[in-house]
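Observation: inputs received (chain + heme C).
Thought: call the complex predictor directly.
Action: predict_structure
Action Input:
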Amino acid sequence: MKVLYGIAVALLVLAAAAVAYAVSPRAIEAVKRPDPQSFDGATVAHGERLALIGNCAECHTAEQGEAYAGGRAIPTPFGTIYATNITPDPETGIGTWSREAFRRSMYEGLDREGEHLYPAFPYHHFTKVLPEDIDALYAYLMTREPVRNEAPANELRFPFNLRPLLAGWKLLYLDNGRFAGLADADEKVNRGAYLVQGLAHCGGCHTPRNALQAEKKDEFLQGEVTENWYAPAISGDVPAAVKWSENQLADYLTGRWVEQHGVALGAMAPVAHNLSRVTDEDVVAISAYIASLMEDDTAETDAEITGAVGERPDSGDVGAVIYAGACAVCHDASPSPFAAGLPLAFSTSLRIPTPLNLIQIIENGVKPPEGQPGRYMPGFAGALTDEQLVALASYLRGRFTGRDPWADIDSVVKATATEGSAGAEISNAE
Ligand code: HEC
Ligand code: HEC
Ligand code: HEC
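Observation:
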C-alpha cells in the first residue's frame, strides 16, 4: 500500500506539472444572478427530474440542512471533502455563475474561478451529459431559493490538499466527451446507457476504483465499497441469487419490494427514492440497459430457493441459535406484511465478497422513510456482542449461500462499531 501510494503521488505530481505547463485554467467572469423568470417552466421541470437522476441533493445537502446549500461531508481515503453550496446565493453559492461557467464545471471539473474540483464531484460521469440537459439543470438550480451557507473547508492530507495536482488526475482519467450512443442497441437501451453512464453515475458507487480513486473502465459496475456499504456487481455474472428481470429491476430501482431480491437499503435507498420521482420511461430505460449488462449472469430466473442451501448447521452453533431466536420469525415465514423480510437465501448481502452490508443491516435495522409505510427490522447493535455478530454472520453465509466463508468478519464488525452511527438511519424507499 505504501509503495502504491508513493507511485500514485509521484504520478500525480509529474502529470500535474505537465498540465500546469501546458495550460492554466482561466476564470470565467462573474454575472448578475439570472432572473428566475427568464427560464421557462418546462425546462425547469425537466431540470428537476434530471437533478433527481443525478442525486445532486444527496451530496449537496447537509443533514438537517437546506436543500442544495452544501456542507455534507464526503469521506475519501485522503480525508474529508465537503460538498459546496449550489443554490444561487451570489456569495456562498453559484449565483454569479454564467451558463458557461456551470457547463464547464460539469464537463471539466473547474469552478468559476478556474480552480480544479475534486472528483468526489462525479464530473467524470457528467461529461457524458448532453449540453441541453446541463442547461436544464442550470435552469433548475438558478430558480431555487438562494441560501447563504458557507461549506466547511476540506480536510485533506498533504499532498492531496493541493488542488493543482488534480490537473494530473484529469490528464490520466478524465475523458471529456459526450455520450456517443451504443452500437447494436435499441433506443430504450441507449437512453438507459446515456443515463447510467452519465447523469446517474451508477459507476460512482458500483465500479471498482484504483489507488487514485479513478474508476477502472474494464471493471465497469463490478462492485465496490462506498461510504461503508458495498455496492454489488450489477454487470456480468452478478452475485444476486436469482437472475434479475427487467421488470424486477424497475421495481427495485423505484424503491419497491421485489419478491426475490428484497428492497434497496443503505446507500442505495436514496437513489431508489429519487428514481421513484422521475418518469417511468427513464426508469424502464435504465432497467433495460442494466438487464442487458447482466445478460450473461449464470443464475436462473425465478429460481426456487427454500431453506438452507449450504451445510446443515450443528444445532450447538451460536449463530444458528441466534438466527432461530432473533431472525427466523421475520425471515422464514412472517405473519405481518410490513415485518416480512426476504428469506435470506435470496439476499445479495450474504453473497457479496464482504460482510459489510450484512453487519450494517443487523446493527442498524431497517426503517421505512419518515412518515411513510414500509418494512421494518429492529437494529441489534446493543443486543448482540461482537462475538455473537461474528458467529451469526459466519453461520448465515455458510447456511444460505454455500460460498467460501468470509475471512474478515472480525475486522468489519470492529470497524463498523467504532464508526458508530456511520451507517445508521437505514431506510428503505418503499
Ligand atoms: C457524490 C457526491 C456528489 C454528487 C452526486 C453531486 N455532487 Fe456536485 N459536488 C460534490 C462535491 C464534493 C463538490 C466540491 C468539490 C471540491 O470541493 O473540489 C461538488 C461541486 C459541485 C459544483 C461546483 C461548485 C463550486 O462552488 O465550486 C457544482 C456546480 C456541482 N457540484 C453541481 C452538481 C450537480 C448539478 C449535481 C447533480 C447533477 C451534482 N453536483 C452532484 C459532490 C457531488
Ligand atoms: C451512492 C452509491 C450508489 C449509487 C449512486 C448507486 N448504487 Fe446501486 N447500490 C448501492 C448499494 C450500497 C447497494 C446494496 C444495497 C443493499 O444491500 O440493499 C446497491 C444495490 C443495487 C442493486 C441491487 C443488487 C443486488 O443484487 O441486490 C441494483 C440493481 C443497483 N444497485 C443498481 C443501481 C443503478 C442502476 C444505479 C444508477 C442508477 C445505482 N445502483 C446507483 C449503492 C449505489
Ligand atoms: C421484525 C422483523 C425482522 C426481524 C426480527 C429481523 N429482520 Fe431482517 N429484515 C426485515 C425486513 C422487513 C427487512 C427489509 C426487507 C428485505 O429486504 O428483506 C429485512 C432485511 C434484512 C436483510 C437484507 C435482505 C436483503 O434485501 O438483501 C438481512 C441480511 C437481514 N434482514 C438479516 C436479519 C438478521 C440476521 C436478523 C436477526 C439478527 C434479522 N434480519 C431480524 C425484518 C426483520
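Thought: report the result.
Final Answer: Residues 51, 54-56, 58-60, 74, 81, 83-84, 86, 94, 102, 105, 111, 117-118, 120-122, 137, 154, 199, 204 surround heme C (ligand 1) (CB under 6 Å). Residues 420-425 have pLDDT under 50 and may be disordered.
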